[in-house]
Design goal:
alpha/beta; 5 helices; two-stranded antiparallel ribbon; single chain; disordered C terminus; seven-stranded mixed β-sheet; TIM Barrel
């Protein structure tokens, strides 16, 4: 049996800024899209991340479920569907742990559903919430939490998560962490926080 590998840019084992509830978030390293104004430009190249086995990712995921009572995982990037084989294995493992799976992708759902790639098909099968569409900086989202631009759609692909969850209407949050002398930031900053955010990173 072959090992499953994931090219990882960042992992945050517990966040409330990347989807409903307490979530384990993994950012993939590498994206074929080049949305102007991407908030993670350092994650666009396919080089520069950390190659991890699925087992190396599942260790912290199991610990987060036990120690931090997470509700689900969120896959971002980069572009998760450019890493569909590894992402689908991780999403399937999350479902076996009774965790929901949320994915942010720049590809429209229709394009993904037409893909002949078995990894893409498998990843969609194990996705509960899909936020799709390219980021358009000229159309900033002002109503829906966790969504970057107004063109992006939210698809509830299973019954695990409810579209009428009131948490979708709360203000966005920005999380700042200091660990081993390094500052990391995740979440969607309010316009008034962007200057601080850019200075920190």
């Amino acid at each position: 049996m072959f090992d499953v590998f994931l090219d990882v840019a960042q992992i945050v084992t517990m966040t409330e800024a990347e989807g409903p509830g307490r979530r384990f978030a993994l950012w993939f390293q590498g994206c074929p899209l080049r949305c102007p104004g991407c908030c993670n430009p350092e994650m666009l190249p396919f080089a520069g991340g950390t190659r991890m086995t699925l087992a190396e990712v599942l260790g912290p995921l199991h610990a987060a479920k036990e120690d931090q009572a997470i509700d689900g995982i969120t896959l971002l990037g980069g572009e998760p569907f450019a890493h569909a084989s590894g992402a689908s294995a991780l999403a399937e493992a999350a479902h076996t742990l009774d965790l929901s799976v949320m994915i942010f992708t720049g590809f429209p759902l229709e394009t993904l559903r037409a893909s002949p790639d078995p990894g893409v098909v498998a990843l969609l099968t194990h996705t509960d919430i899909l936020v799709d569409g390219p980021y358009l900086r000229a159309l900033p989202e002002t109503r829906r939490r966790w969504i970057g631009s107004a063109n992006q759609r939210v698809h509830f692909l299973s019954g695990r998560c409810a579209p009428d969850d009131p948490r979708w209407r709360l203000p966005n949050t920005l999380e700042i962490r200091l660990k081993d002398g390094e500052v990391s930031v995740n979440g969607y900053p309010a316009a008034r926080a962007i200057g601080l955010w850019k200075r920190l990173v």
